[in-house]
Q: What sequence folds into this?
């Protein structure tokens, strides 16, 4: 039989998350962000759950081709725009909308020979300092684009760096408004955190919202709020089984480096999951896990193919018992991926994207 580890994508959870986000978005249309192969879930596996979105946003031209192959005929937005001039041919052929964030992209567009003008999203760097034109250079970029016959419609966008924290969105939104208040075109501003935390403040300037992590059932502002607080459900479950049970005596240690030593007699379970499956190696004793739906903890270091868990809260557990690394157990108990990520000193985005190729998926 195959090794028992499995990643399961929950179509109904995706559907319900999307509905919750659409309610939060009000009158704005919604991009479902499916970059990084739908945050590790798989574009083909999430499509049915997200097909009620108004559009899909991603980075990679190949991923855009995969969406079109699924018979998606709605908008697709390239969030980083084109990387070289020949990408514009594929944008024309597939009907892709794309971000313009630098003068070099405008140069490529100006040199592009086409009969089909393109829909572009001009990006402002309002404080994130990754992509986009600074506010004082934004209008000049808009003027250049507006003069090009290769351009159909110009939409305006920015990206908030602190929507999940105390700084909020006010300063960046003010910078955006000051530079764009009299410019025509639709606006897209809100990521997951801005949509859930600041929707009211941004409502009048939100033609499109573009949630990412929230679509997949994670809270962008964890630990301030849980996914459940926002009405979100886990879209992925990583599960396995116990493949061995050991009895420890006082003073026995567990795993490489003997980082956990038993202070009493106890049973531990060995789980078929390790860092080669994408579970974070830098996690350790105390990280949450469910065994037969009961919450317990990881013990010692994570190995390449195995990790060990405390069976004290689950005395009936044995070889073959279900282990939920994150997500929803067979009994319906939920282990939020945000809690697992926090125990490993990282974020849910990384765990979702890091599930290894050797882990089979089900949907």
A:
């Amino acid at each position: 039989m195959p090794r028992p580890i499995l990643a399961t994508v929950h179509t109904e959870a995706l559907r319900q998350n999307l509905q919750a986000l659409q309610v939060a978005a009000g009158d704005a249309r919604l991009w479902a962000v499916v970059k990084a192969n739908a945050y590790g879930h798989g574009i083909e596996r999430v499509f049915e759950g997200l097909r009620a979105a108004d559009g899909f946003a991603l980075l990679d031209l190949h991923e855009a081709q995969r969406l079109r192959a699924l018979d998606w005929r709605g908008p697709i937005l390239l969030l980083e725009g084109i990387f070289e001039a020949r990408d514009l041919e594929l944008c024309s052929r597939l009907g892709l909308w794309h971000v313009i964030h630098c003068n070099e992209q405008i140069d490529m567009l100006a040199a592009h020979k086409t009969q089909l003008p393109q829909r572009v999203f001009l990006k402002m760097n309002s404080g994130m300092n990754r992509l986009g034109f600074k506010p004082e250079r934004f209008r000049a970029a808009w003027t250049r684009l507006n003069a090009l016959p290769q351009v159909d419609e110009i939409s305006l966008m920015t990206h908030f760096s602190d929507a999940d924290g105390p700084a909020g969105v006010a300063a960046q939104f003010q910078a955006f408004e000051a530079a764009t208040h009299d410019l025509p075109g639709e606006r897209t501003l809100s990521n997951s955190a801005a949509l859930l935390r600041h929707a009211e403040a941004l409502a009048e300037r939100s033609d499109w919202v573009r949630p990412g992590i929230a679509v997949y059932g994670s809270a962008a502002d964890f630990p301030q709020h849980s996914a459940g607080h926002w009405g979100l459900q886990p879209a992925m479950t990583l599960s396995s089984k116990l493949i061995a049970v050991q009895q420890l005596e006082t003073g026995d240690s567990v795993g490489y480096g003997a980082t956990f030593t038993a202070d009493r007699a106890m049973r531990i379970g060995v789980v078929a999951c390790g860092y080669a499956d994408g579970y974070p190696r830098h996690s350790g004793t105390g990280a949450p896990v469910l065994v037969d739906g009961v919450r317990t903890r990881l013990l010692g270091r994570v190995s390449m193919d195995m990790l060990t868990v405390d069976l004290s809260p689950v005395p009936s557990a044995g070889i073959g018992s279900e282990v939920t690394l994150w997500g929803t157990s067979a009994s319906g108990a939920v282990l939020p991926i945000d809690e697992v990520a926090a125990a490993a000193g990282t974020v849910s985005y990384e765990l979702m994207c890091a599930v290894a190729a050797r882990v089979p998926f089900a949907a």
Remarks:
- The first helix runs from residue 11 to 25.
- The CA atoms of residues 256 and 301 lie 6 Å apart.
- The chain has two domains: 11-226, 236-362.
